[in-house]
Specification:
The protein has 84 residues and is of the alpha+beta class. The chain contains three helices and three strands, in the order ββααβα.
Length: 84
């Protein structure tokens, strides 16, 4: 099971997509959701890269203040059933 989280905050800030650490997250709620989110397995990292995202080896299934389009793409990545 993988857990993805989408945090839509009233805190202003640029979207953060699939971060590798909580260092740039603006508040305790975002950091908590990041820690709860799953580390992306290799096949989902590759799918994210194919979709144009810059994801590193420690990327988590977490997005902060994403647009509705990015939220939908996150849901798509998180519900893919195919395995390598």
């Amino acid at each position: 099971m993988l857990l993805f989280n989408v945090h839509l905050s009233s805190h202003p800030g640029a979207p953060i997509l699939y971060p590798e650490s909580e260092a740039n997250l603006p508040d305790t709620f975002a950091r908590q959701l990041f820690r709860m989110s799953s580390l992306l397995p290799p096949h989902i990292r590759e799918a994210a890269r194919s979709a144009g995202y810059a994801v590193g080896p420690q990327a988590h299934g977490f997005v902060f203040n994403a647009s509705i389009i990015e939220v939908i793409k996150c849901l798509d990545l998180g519900t893919r059933a195919e395995l390598p």
